[in-house]
Amino acid sequence: MRGRATVDRGGLLPSAILALLGSRGSASRADLARILNVSSATVTQVTKVLLARGLIAELDVTPSQGGRPATQLGLVRSAGHAVGVKITPDHVGVVQVELDGTLGAPSLFPFDPGSPGCIDELAATLRQRIGEMSGGLLGVGVGVPGAVDAQDSGIVRAPTLGWSEMQVGPLLRGQLGVPVLVENDVNTLAVADRLYGLGEDFNTYIVVTIGRGIGCGVVIDGSIYRGAFGAAGEIGHTIVDLNDDQVCECGSTGCVEATIGDEGLLRAARRAGVVGDGDTVAELVAAADAGDTAARALYARAGRLLGAALSGVVHTVDPEVIILSGEGISAWPHWEAGFREMFRRHLLPRWRSIPFLVEQWDETKWMLGAASLVLTTPFDTVGVGGSQGRLVRDRLQRNGSMVTA
């Protein structure tokens, strides 16, 4: 990765080595020292302990140019796994993720966030699902469509779920007895991209999602930027249309999310006669794919509004790249022309060549993102994971006696 921060030489380094071998594959001791910016002697000392605990293993020997052959080290997959949980307004997705990012079979469960006992029901579902998994559980990561005060406390404000100060983290920790990290769902995608995705080769970037909402995760110098109250990146509530009187879920009008999120697009499509009252975004996309000029015009306008909003974000954050993602990305060919035109036009010359990358999408990306809250804690040099992150690192450094739940 570009600009990887120096890893703390205390308890963080053993976990950093494990996560690096998990996410990048086998490496020599010299490779580890170079990537993690520590001395070869330190890496040799730490890997000796990890070998003795059975967390890593020596693999083949790679020929070198003139020096001693380099022994490759590899992760023992049974060293641990995380569980990723994505909460939506009508269902929950759950998946087991290994240290190298390998996903198990995802599970989807109905979920009613308005039910008084919804978190108790979620905990019961997770206990059952975790009980079916093998290996050492490092922790549970939860992604939610809303603001979270801190990953380790996990208090959630999510208008789309009808939640205000919902005690997601404390309630789940109390019932599961394992570390639980909670974060805004788009931030979780940004974390996953840091470990396994398009953000792997960049140090400062933004991830923007389109779909039911319009979200943004900001990574600065390799770490998620959360803001003073955990709500940084809420670009969906940037005002882009002063003439739109549609009230957003936030209570304001003219928000980018209310205008070009799924519901906003459908309202406009119904007014234009492109889709009927019972139709969904799938029918709108199909109409655009079939060449319907009105449908394509709606998406072109959406692209222009998104481009205008993101130009301001680029001027503020100064990222290396923009990653576009989310469940609505399948319609990106219809957004792109309008987006490219407006985005480039409103950027200062310094940023007009900034690349934007489009990430292929499926729902498991949300779950991988949530699990990545747990798997990325070895690189948490600024303490975003707090006390729960420290518990994850403790579990990662234990021997094979780790319990699953």
TrEMBL record:
The keyword Transferase applies. Gene3D superfamilies: 3.30.420.40, Winged helix-like DNA-binding domain superfamily/Winged helix DNA-binding domain. Keywords: Kinase, Transferase. PROSITE patterns: ROK (PS01125). One of its GO terms (molecular function) is kinase activity. Residues 17-57 form the HTH marR-type domain. Pfam families: MarR, ROK. InterPro entries: ATPase_NBD (IPR043129), HTH_MarR-typ (IPR000835), ROK (IPR000600), ROK_cs (IPR049874), WH-like_DNA-bd_sf (IPR036388), WH_DNA-bd_sf (IPR036390). Belongs to the ROK (NagC/XylR) family. This is Sugar kinase.
